[in-house]
């Protein structure tokens, strides 16, 4: 799509031939965080910085901070809970969205 | 060019060679035809400089065609019957991505009972895949309209894939006299293919991304509007081809339809038998004519309305059953196209010519005579022609 309009303002005339997307990588703009019904919370006291949550996150939205602790990017996190399921030390808990 | 004797399948392969296709991807086993067999020979012999991709199924054949057409390569494949059905889901992607693949389809019946013989069951199952669909009646038309298909599909204002339907066996496997064009003539007629947004590492694009509900309807409307908007180019290409070859094609074609009170409507090779029947009936003094749908998609609404507005009875032949539904896709679409008209003919639908069953002149005469009765009664009956019992 050539025009950078809000999705709700895009008309059929704005759609490029074949609905191609001419700005590759723009999926990063797409917020998947609002799919979430539960969000993960990291307990730094239990975290051993092993990175298993980072490896298993299917959304690739977990990164580590300056101290090496892991955290999720809630703009993308869909709340699947895989990180909490895989965490060796139960440092991650899933809790309801506030 | 001199007249040659050539099988319909080979005539189509010759058109693909003259079009200088870049990629041919095909699955070689029945229900495949001589079209891609001949193309494989041409590539092996150095007569055609193309990448020939033998794949493991028709699903893969169409998938390979997507990739090659998306890079800007002129792409051809062929299939028929069950093979076309195996391609089914990928056909939609070709039209949605607006990739001008040309595909020859030797129309065949579907299993079961197993039948490799001709009818239109395979075509009708892919009716709504978004392709431009054109019917031929003989080998000459298979050659001509395959060449035209590349130019139509690849036109920057079109960019849609095109199916060329030729009746299995009755056209695909029959040797007929026909005229070819030479390389120079084709070069002048068919410019190089250039897609506006090809797969190109220097200018990357995303193809086939998903569309959320807030965008899918707009994407569909864009595609549908573009498909309906191809009519002008299709007419222009056929007009230019007529000037080049002396052979003229139209979306709806007429045979002795002047002053006809009864018209037959056919698609494909049985049109030629219907012409014989019309000749016999005209000799008897009956006002009977024939119209043939050359263009199946986009459907030629206006031409069909014009062609039928003066007749009293329209008799439609379908070579396909819509099981449990209205009597044949061609008949039900014809009825739908004419419903809004204040003055419209009575319509009778017949189903026949299934699984390679021949329909000969007496059966077309019978359709005209019986059709007048059924149509006058409202035309809701489903009647099969040439069935025993």
Write up what this structure looks like:
The complex is a heterodimer of chains A (98) and B (389). With 98 residues, chain A is α+β, with helices and mostly antiparallel strands. Chain A is built from two helices and four strands. In chain A, the strands form two sheets. Chain A has a two-stranded antiparallel ribbon with strand order 1-4. In chain A, strands 2-3 form a two-stranded antiparallel ribbon. In chain A, a hairpin with a 5-residue loop joins strand 2 (62-64) and strand 3. Chain A starts with 37 loop residues before the first strand and ends with a strand. Chain B is α/β, with parallel strands linked by helices. The mean pLDDT of chain B is 96. Chain B has two domains: 3-244, 3-Layer(aba) Sandwich (Rossmann fold); 252-384, Rossmann fold (3-Layer(aba) Sandwich), CATH 3.40.50.920. In chain B, the strands form three sheets. Chain B has a seven-stranded mixed beta sheet, with helices on both faces. Chain B has helices at residues 8-18, 34-44, 58-70, 81-86, 88-96, 121-125, 139-154, 183-189, 213-228, 231-245, 270-283, 301-308, 329-338, 361-376, and strands at 3-7, 23-26, 51-54, 75-79, 102-107, 132-135, 162-167, 175-179, 252-255, 262-266, 288-293, 295-297, 313-318, 346-351, 383-384. The A-B interface holds A 7-8, 10-22, 24, 27 and B 96-99, 159, 196-197, 204-207, 209, 211-212, 214-215, 217-219, 221-223, 225-226.
Descriptive tags:
heterodimer; A: 98 residues; alpha+beta; Alpha-Beta Plaits; two-stranded antiparallel sheet; 4 strands; 10% helix; B: 389 residues; alpha/beta; Rossmann fold; 7-stranded mixed beta sheet; 14 helices; globular
Layout of helices and strands, plus pairs?
The complex is a heterodimer of chains A (98) and B (389).
Chain A: E1 38-42, H1 52-56, E2 62-64, E3 70-72, H2 82-86, E4 92-96
Antiparallel strand pairs in A: 1-4, 2-3
Chain B: E1 3-7, H1 8-18, E2 23-26, H2 34-44, E3 51-54, H3 58-70, E4 75-79, H4 81-86, H5 88-96, E5 102-107, H6 121-125, E6 132-135, H7 139-154, E7 162-167, E8 175-179, H8 183-189, H9 213-228, H10 231-245, E9 252-255, E10 262-266, H11 270-283, E11 288-293, E12 295-297, H12 301-308, E13 313-318, H13 329-338, E14 346-351, H14 361-376, E15 383-384
Parallel strand pairs in B: 2-3, 2-4, 4-5, 5-7, 6-7, 10-11, 10-13, 13-14, 14-15
Antiparallel strand pairs in B: 1-8, 6-12, 9-11
């Amino acid at each position: 799509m050539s025009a950078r309009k809000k999705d709700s303002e895009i008309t059929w005339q704005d759609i490029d031939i074949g609905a191609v997307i001419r700005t590759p990588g723009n999926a990063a703009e797409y917020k998947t965080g609002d799919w979430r019904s539960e969000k993960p919370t990291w307990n730094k006291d239990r975290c051993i910085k092993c990175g298993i949550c980072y490896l298993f996150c299917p959304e690739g939205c977990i990164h580590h901070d300056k101290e090496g602790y892991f955290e999720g990017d809630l703009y993308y996190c869909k709340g699947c809970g895989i990180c909490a399921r895989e965490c060796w030390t139960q440092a991650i808990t899933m809790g309801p969205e506030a | 060019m001199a007249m040659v004797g050539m099988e319909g399948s080979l005539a189509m392969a010759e058109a693909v060679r003259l079009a200088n296709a870049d990629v041919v991807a095909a699955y070689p086993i029945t229900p495949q035809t001589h079209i891609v067999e001949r193309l494989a020979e041409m590539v092996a012999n150095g007569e055609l400089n193309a990448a020939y991709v033998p794949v493991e199924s028709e699903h893969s054949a169409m998938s390979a065609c997507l990739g090659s057409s998306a890079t800007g390569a002129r792409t051809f494949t062929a299939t028929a019957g069950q093979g076309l059905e195996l391609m089914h889901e990928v056909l939609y992607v070709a039209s949605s991505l607006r990739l001008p693949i040309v595909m020859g389809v030797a129309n065949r019946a579907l299993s079961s009972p197993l039948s490799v013989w001709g009818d239109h069951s395979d075509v009708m199952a892919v009716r709504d895949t978004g392709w431009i669909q054109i019917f031929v009646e003989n080998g000459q038309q298979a050659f001509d309209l395959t060449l035209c298909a590349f130019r139509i599909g690849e036109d920057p204002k079109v960019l849609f894939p095109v199916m060329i339907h030729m009746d299995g066996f009755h056209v695909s496997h029959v040797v007929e006299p026909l005229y070819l064009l030479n390389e120079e003539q084709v070069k002048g007629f068919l410019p190089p293919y250039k897609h506006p947004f090809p797969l190109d590492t220097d200018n990357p694009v995303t193809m086939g991304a998903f569309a959320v509900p807030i965008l899918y309807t707009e994407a569909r409307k864009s595609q549908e509007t573009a498909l309906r908007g191809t009519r002008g180019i299709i007419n222009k290409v056929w007009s230019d081809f007529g000037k080049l070859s002396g052979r003229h094609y139209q979306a709806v074609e007429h045979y002795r339809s002047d002053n006809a009170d009864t018209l037959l409507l056919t698609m494909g090779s049985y049109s030629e038998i219907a012409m014989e029947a019309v000749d016999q009936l005209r000799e008897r003094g009956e006002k009977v004519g024939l119209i043939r749908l050359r263009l199946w998609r986009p459907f030629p609404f206006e031409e069909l309305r014009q062609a039928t507005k003066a007749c009293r009875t329209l008799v439609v032949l379908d070579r396909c059953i819509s099981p449990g539904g209205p009597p044949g896709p061609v008949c039900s679409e014809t009825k739908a196209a004419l419903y809004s008209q204040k003055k419209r003919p009575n319509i009778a639908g017949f189903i026949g010519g299934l699984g390679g069953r021949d329909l000969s002149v007496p059966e077309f005469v019978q359709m005209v005579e019986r059709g007048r009765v059924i149509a006058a009664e409202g035309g809701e009956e489903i009647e099969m022609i040439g069935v025993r019992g």
